[in-house]
Design goal:
CATH architecture of the largest domain: 7 Propeller
Mean pLDDT: 73
CATH class of the largest domain: Mainly Beta
Organism: Kuenenia stuttgartiensis
Structural class: mainly beta
Protein name: DUF7948 domain-containing protein
CATH topology of the largest domain: Methylamine Dehydrogenase, Chain H
Number of helices: 8
CATH superfamily of the largest domain: YVTN repeat-like/Quinoprotein amine dehydrogenase
Pfam family, one: SBBP
Strand content: 35-45%
Amino acid sequence: MIQRNCVVFTVSAILFLIVFSIPSLIASHENSNKQSFKSSIPQSTIQNLSSTSTGDPKLDSAAFAQKTKKLQIPFIANNGQVDEQVKFYANTFGGTVFVTKDGEIVYALPNNSSESGVRCSKNQEAKCMIQGPRNMSNTTNRLSCILHHEANIPYCTNCLLAGIAKNIGQDTQGVAIKETLVGGRVHEITGNEKAVTKVSYFKGNDTSQWKTNISAYDVVSLGEVYDGIELKLKAYGNNVEKLFCVKPDANPDQIQVKLSGAKDLRVNDEGQLEAETELGMVKFTKPIAYQEIDGNRVAVDVEYDIQNPEVGRRNQKIPNWKSASYNKTRTKKFVHSTHKHNPNSEIQNPKLEYGFKVASYDKTYELIIDPLLASTYLGGSDNDYVYSLALDTSGNVYVTGYTKSSNFPTTSGAYDTSFTGGNYQEHVFVSKLDGGLTSLLASTFLGGSDYNCGYSLALDTSGNVYVTGKTGSSDFPTTSGAYDTSFTGGNYQEHVFVSKLDGGLTSLLASTFLGGSGQDYGYSLALDTSGNVYVTGYTMSSDFPTTSGAYDTSQTGSSDVFVSKLNSGLTSLLASTYLGGSSDDYGYSLALDTSGNVYVTGYTKSSDFPTMSGAYDTSLSQTGSHDVFVSKLNSGLTSLLASTYLGEPGYNEGRSLALDTSGNVYVTGYTMSPLFPTTSGAYDTSYNYGYDVFVSKLDGGLTSLLASTYLGGLSDDYGYSLALDTNGNVYVTGQTESSRFPTTRGAYDTSDSDDSDVFVSKLNSGLTSLLASTYLGGSNDDEGYSLVLDTSGNVYVTGWTSGGGFPTTSGAYDTSYYYGYDVFVSKLDGNLSATSATPTPTPTPTPTPTPTPTTCTDSYEPNNSTSEAYGPLRSGSSYSGKICSDSDVDWFKVNITIEGTISLSLTVPSSNDYELELYDASYAKIVSSTNGSGVSESIDYDATSTGNYYIKIYGFSGSSNTTNSYTLTYTYTSKTTPTPTTTLTPGGHTAALSVSPSEVSLYDSVVVTVVDWDLNTTSSYADTGNVRIKSNSDTTGFYLGLMEMNVNSGSFKGTFVTGDTTDLSASPRKIGVGVNDTITVS
């Protein structure tokens, strides 16, 4: 049953003018900001923030802004130190917010542009000065011109901070915006959640005017401002957050807020509210709505609703706005349909009022919309990259990577708070955040005067942190007694480093080099139960250190994998070996089993990479190919216990591995091979396009491929990290550039941005089902590089993001994008969706049964319109989906490049009546099939026009089924027969469109026609031809894997020369064709 049904709106006002930057704001008021800040937070924090001066005023001010913008700011009670109309105020780092006794909210925002030509007259200055929060002079300053004379606001704002301007010796103008609750009432304003901070003011020698021990509060409540609706305020760094609590049966449509001091009001593409002022744009963040049901947070769709003066109060219905229970897309843009911004109009919205449009919700069903439990930025004023993430036993989060930012955030007492690299150099960083991602608990640099990169970290049982990577710094810090304290490489050479820090990142406990005279890279490390440290990567050094009796003590290729074992104090090299063949070999990930054996993955170009008899695959797929390898060594690194290739002709790279409780090995990475090995019943057995993610499962002896699947969309997708939960389910993260990367209903984000996004996907242990999958990203490039699971099954993901817009959560350590590439750390629940609302029994006199929530999963969603149609479909393939509600409509599309017949078959659940319709490229209905309940539908249509055709499936009279799926089968038969030829024009990365004839005998020719995938057609990438070759000596057929890579048009034809005759019953066998290859079968 529902314990509490209070819908909470969260709206943050970003307190800075968009035309100016935060660093310039802080720089202009550096001295006065520090004074105000001291009155708001403990002195110890001030020292922490100001202890890392660089000597560069711009960098110092930027660092100050970076370190302060995420702090919670208390509201100070007015005990007579400011104007009597003020009840509470908060000195944020973007300006000051006043809460008046009448419940009005006034934002006083400074403009620090040196180019502004506005000046205050003496009359305006005398009339409009307010008691500045950073200059508490005893004057007759008043807020009256702002609070009660709205016509004066555009003039008053230009001299709002005139008193401050005098104090700091420069002209300063600003802007004020006042928010009034239209139709609301405020009876009592109270401070809640008293802060530890006390504020005192001492002015002059009249002690009666001194104000001491003034209380401050983290929350200000305006009480019940509308019937059943309470309003609370919080302040963080640059932001002020409004929370409207809507009680059961209260109507959120009552909420109507009027803005005074703005010229126009509109909603931007990000869903933010923008108020245009005389001096620039002020933004209010996109609102969030949720419910607390049985102790769980359940999200509800909400958007700003701007009143239109021509319509009245506001539109009460938005076309196509569905119930949140069935809404399958994340709305990325919402602008009220009757409010269009006209740049030529002086006044766009004279009333300047906004409210909220809230989607309806079904209380009997689980509502899953917004699962982002926590998310934060982490970075400085240059590029920052992260590669590894780990959790301690308390749930704190450690990340490592490298930064080019001299002002990357560090903490007081950290091992190294100074960026010592020169221009274009990088430093390793190691940072520690709390599990809620709200606080930076510790952070340090680690490196020398050249470039330094951190690639992997792990924690021991005492909470100490081990880090590995590469360094080009001869002065990289090492410790006395370490295994190797000398940098033996020359200029532009790099060595592996392994370092150990305490859990608080205050001390370097141990640190050593590891390498030879060439290039050496450390990419992954792990600890055994005795605390010994295993490291893998690759080396180009012929003298990389190995140990007596090691499996391989000689370099055999230009680059070889290495695996090394050091003691916990990093003073001794216990074991070390090469691993590789005569070509290039690269190690990227390692893991240990319960017996201490070491598994390593990466990729190899060596045809003689060491494998073992009985291994799953003992041969490189093709000369010049990059194949995944998986190898198993004993704990002493003296014996190769098992080793196998994994891949087919093309490019295959293993990037991460993990072991389940049975000792099976899961590997992920990416492949460009359309023939990459998959297993029967796997989630996706068909190559998609470009680079695809793969996830494969091998037995512990590396003799059998237990399961293997593709995972990807219609562009490049890369898998970088995987982890297993306690049920054996597999989580994968990486980067996708695909607009059709597979996502699941109810996932956090089912829509991609215009650029690359992070993906997080969850598969079952058998790799047959995609249990959950989501995008995660902002408006530009985002890349996920590492993930781990906590003891509750929540998923932490880290990577980097560019260009802003990456989703963060209220109260996160850092909610603002800084520059270039920033690190992100995000936390999602195990379902990659909102926390499930599981009913909790509560004793009551009369128990009330609660319907069981139902989840409907359809992997092709969202496909509710022609613009979202899934496809193009593959000829000869079947697709299973669900009609989840009476309003659910599923759209698919096919693309026709030559005349032929479209054949569709729809098998429906026995209890349902579904309709099947076909539409042309102009969305006009062509033909439909409308049989009765439980009867299959079918369509055969002769397509004489090329282009897209659309397929619509929906329930008749609201028929739906959340449990059982329909199956749509699509077949296309071409009416064009290609002309046989005996020439072959190779390509690389698409598959055959048509093959003729389908059965051949001795010396017959088979013609394979492949149209260009990239530019000239949108034919399905998996339209392949099967050719049966009648032969006495070989009864198997052949599947032509002809690929296209760099050719933009035309067809490709190949000839098979066959043997004798008869059997056509065998399964197809694969033949790959690459650039400059020919096909000859005899």
